[in-house]
Amino acid sequence: MTPSQKTPRVPRPIQYSEYLQLDQLLATQTLESARYGKPAHDELLFIITHQAYELWFKQIVFELESVVDIFDNSTVEDREMGQIIGWLTRITKIQTILLQQIDVIETMTPLDFLDFRDLLVPASGFQSIQFKQIEIMLGIRREQRTPADRDFFHSRLSEAEQSQLLALEARPSLLDLTDAWLQRMPFLNFGQFEFWREYETAVELMLESDRNIIALNPALSEEHRAWQLAAIETAKQRFASALEEERYNELRQAGEFRLTHQGFLAALFINLYRDEPMMYLPYRYLTLLLEIDQNFTNWRSRHALMVQRMLGRKIGTGGSSGHEYLSQTTEKNRVFLDLFALSTFLLPRSALPSLPVELSRALGFHFAGNSRATE
Amino acid sequence: MTPSQKTPRVPRPIQYSEYLQLDQLLATQTLESARYGKPAHDELLFIITHQAYELWFKQIVFELESVVDIFDNSTVEDREMGQIIGWLTRITKIQTILLQQIDVIETMTPLDFLDFRDLLVPASGFQSIQFKQIEIMLGIRREQRTPADRDFFHSRLSEAEQSQLLALEARPSLLDLTDAWLQRMPFLNFGQFEFWREYETAVELMLESDRNIIALNPALSEEHRAWQLAAIETAKQRFASALEEERYNELRQAGEFRLTHQGFLAALFINLYRDEPMMYLPYRYLTLLLEIDQNFTNWRSRHALMVQRMLGRKIGTGGSSGHEYLSQTTEKNRVFLDLFALSTFLLPRSALPSLPVELSRALGFHFAGNSRATE
Amino acid sequence: MTPSQKTPRVPRPIQYSEYLQLDQLLATQTLESARYGKPAHDELLFIITHQAYELWFKQIVFELESVVDIFDNSTVEDREMGQIIGWLTRITKIQTILLQQIDVIETMTPLDFLDFRDLLVPASGFQSIQFKQIEIMLGIRREQRTPADRDFFHSRLSEAEQSQLLALEARPSLLDLTDAWLQRMPFLNFGQFEFWREYETAVELMLESDRNIIALNPALSEEHRAWQLAAIETAKQRFASALEEERYNELRQAGEFRLTHQGFLAALFINLYRDEPMMYLPYRYLTLLLEIDQNFTNWRSRHALMVQRMLGRKIGTGGSSGHEYLSQTTEKNRVFLDLFALSTFLLPRSALPSLPVELSRALGFHFAGNSRATE
Amino acid sequence: MTPSQKTPRVPRPIQYSEYLQLDQLLATQTLESARYGKPAHDELLFIITHQAYELWFKQIVFELESVVDIFDNSTVEDREMGQIIGWLTRITKIQTILLQQIDVIETMTPLDFLDFRDLLVPASGFQSIQFKQIEIMLGIRREQRTPADRDFFHSRLSEAEQSQLLALEARPSLLDLTDAWLQRMPFLNFGQFEFWREYETAVELMLESDRNIIALNPALSEEHRAWQLAAIETAKQRFASALEEERYNELRQAGEFRLTHQGFLAALFINLYRDEPMMYLPYRYLTLLLEIDQNFTNWRSRHALMVQRMLGRKIGTGGSSGHEYLSQTTEKNRVFLDLFALSTFLLPRSALPSLPVELSRALGFHFAGNSRATE
Question: Is the ipTM, as predicted for this complex, more than 0.90?
């Protein structure tokens, strides 16, 4: 009998502590302060909190890799989209933990930290390779980083780590892959329907109506009226720059957008028609990217406050002024700003161009057999 | 020129405090302790926390009403399903606030509470009409309530309140409407595909394989082996009772299930094939119902602990022993237990009967025009 | 020159990943499903979440040990009380993480879990030695555990683990040590002041006043009046049982109290006079014990709901019905119920016996030198 | 018989909905969109969330007023300090709610908001008088506000509101009162003990030791060594500027500090010797001020992200670009930065000057009667 004939294969019995490799896991907390003969009470907390961060980072890296793997194929099945949304939702829940862990580390007071911080030189949280991996996989590019952050790559990482990150930077990021996926969206030139021309008309109608409202409003001072009319002109320019490929590309060159024009328009379409059943999953997907970005921004800002509280203006163990460094990355290291900007270009539902019937039907679900509509 | 010709209609200018009716809102906090000449510092917190609860209850009632209104029609459009999911998600976020507010109320110590609690007799949080409305709209029935809870309806509510709640109880609840919607699901008898016969076979195969694994496992003591084999027999009975309408209905009569047999099977199908795109929204919907139930259960249990901490074994201002009352409702006032029970009947994906191609295609999305699959 | 003369001792430089032993830490996640050739996506989450739990349990064990070490000495300095409060506060913040991690694990659906759960037999979370340590250190006794829970000690732990826990059970728990510390409180028989006689009088006055209020209240139905008067008699019995040592000890024998009578009275005194500066730290300490108990209760109840959602009525991998097991321990495994019961015996501040001036002064802070009062 | 002879005074019976004035409370939600005939589903959420904010603001204003009232007296009793700490802790718990409510409002999507936002012109959340009150009571001064923020005071508030806020600005803020209280601290010139001279020596010793460590460290590159030595010189300057009154006052004039020199030193002393029992309450107090500041900073930053997500680069209903406005106030409107800066000046416990025995004893608790030390 060959092994493959053995049916069923009996799983070996496994116990809890063996499964979780607790012997090894719980042996990885070695206090530096104990090494120097003066164990500091709070060093264990410091280690464990950072280890918990690294465990969660491993999970996030894994989920992002799984998402990237699917997007790397030319087609993303809707079935896979459901999975992707599940994994990204998981990342947002983990981010809640990352945030909450700051509350735990803050039970260590600045004075308690002084009991061992001098022993940790030059270790620094900015050396977390996994966190850099997450940033790169999302789409943070070397050139957008602050000088201090870029410096870290050269001076503080081992050569092996550097090449690992360089290789990762050479691969398409989630932003790149999302852009490619958006460009593949088939909705934008459906049949004879020229959506963007209709959208332009709707925008012009809306702005004209706004101008009238302002002109007629007796409650406005002249100054306020002038100010509001100017705001409408600004809005008009914005809409124009979103719709005209050339102007959009100029702004993109200048760094104001990262998505391609085609990708940007598809994202806008998804946001405008998110009520259509077929837009449900794409809309959820884009919203989750935005939320992940928002959560990391929030975490960086919270982290910067914590470091300020812990060190004041002291230099961190890694040789940088932690608070400043972190404050700067808070705004710098954002990836999906284009998705935040989309709100600029939304129209009220009542002003939206209505879709041609056939497109509208195409965007709905069809149940070929026993139709639900006839139930 | 008639008024209707005025185009566009100019919205009246409105200021923040006027819009929110702050003058009235912020005038609704009157301390009983002040009325008796000894203002108690913590009474304001007590009032404001309860008012915040009532504001959020109003929002939850409104969202539930909106959901019920849609389900009350014979057909639920997928487009509407997206909305419903958004509203139910909102309820879960509000429930997070409800839970967190217990942390705020707990900054009042039992001793601080004594400064004014005697003045509140016989007011009681169990008199919250809006909370009873929420319970009834979800599907809590009068007869499942504890005697103390039922009593409250007669003895502590005004006649107008009683009739309002009676009328609400006469309407179909979200549980009823969900059951009806599940029964309308068209998937279960698709063409020649007799799903449940295949499912039964898959279950039998799985249990048989389990029996073999147990029989062959050298690591098991005889006692443990016998125990595990017995567990498999129990599982077998459970599957049988889910599949055979008659046995299911007996159990339902006995109160173990609330969904109809057809509704239960549809919910099970949705859980088994949730990876199919067309199942995405229904699966999200059922999951949200389960989470709302779970969150209220969690809140009741947390609430019971808080009352125990505040009053010990004292009688509450409403004349009931709050802790006991709340502890009992924690398990009693659950609605969607059937959805928790579904997990009992899941099979691993690898053991699932595969769907006929045409059904599988029907469950996928179709884009009639520029097919994504061909991109 | 001998090494010990080298001053200052130069700490070795240390890098982030070396300090946190990331190579080992991040190598402890081995998927059972991969071992059988079918890696299940969600198994990594399952492992990492449980590992994060174990890391935090290690921290909690460490903090509890530090607290116990201090209490094991006959005297606890106020300076140490400040530290203890810091550590217990830390435990409550960690408990927030423990709770939140349930939200993360719930991003795994019951169906995803089925992809690998059969491979984990007979591992079970109830085998967590560290969690049992925490329970024992707090004061959960073998005999109060549910039969299933007790069984686990014999059947599922290794002999080494069993002896380790037995040894721990033989040591005084935090409850025991707190009781001893309370008994040492010097305030209860200060000079000629017989506090408890005065307290008894105050209770009698308060109850008498309550009886009058009830008798005079024209809004009460006769039935309600009778009911309220009966409630006062019950309250009177309760106060009596707290004050009379013999009756208290009978109730304690019957399991209704765990603190000694002397310890209980001291805890009550601290709660009654918590506004006195010297009571500030003791009151904070008792409140934190209560909150830790409350948080674990809350976590067990939340955990039970999660298991019900994941498994329905299926048997857990460890061979027990997880939901039932957990539901039972929710109420069973509580330690500081006496502190919750204290609220039963509080009096409004206005009814509190006033303290003799010298005792009151003794309970205040004294600054011997440049007195603040004279500022 | 006169009314005052009636003993006991019977409290009138009161019911839940009457106590909370639910009829009025729940009548304050009027949808503007309904007024124009097109009720927008999400407007109720918008109103209720903002009303919940205002309820909580009222509570925060009340707690701050209570704190200020106590501090306004020349002496703060330790007994009162305990109360103050309770109230400030409450504020931090409420701030958790404020933060969480952003998650609720974000269940409204940008498109949903467009259904009614045009009707709310020119209402703006920046018109919240209660929030301005909170800012002023904490210590935000008109001149530190951004130009846009200052503008709001003139252009968007009624005259009555403006005078109300002006009057509040004329009163001492919590920062002012805390400074005065710190200056009254009696510890700094205790007897012959000249603390700050000893502190200076300790700082010099510590920096000298640091210099040696750097000089001897073989692992440092020359560049890194130079960089670290320069960092020590910077640290030295910082310590000097904190200790020398004249230099400190220059920096204060330049806006780098807000506390007086004497107040700053007292706060530093409290942080350095927070382990002394008598420092426990003052240390908790200062930490809470810092946390309240941190929480509002965090909330502003989170709020700015939410507005960016909702409006993109659109102009807010109040006529300002919400995101930019909020981003700027995030760093601008901070009050207790000096407390964050304190960490710069901490020394490790091992380097702290030891206190003279009599001072140390004075900082401990004394129990005049039955001393605990002798137990």
Answer: yes
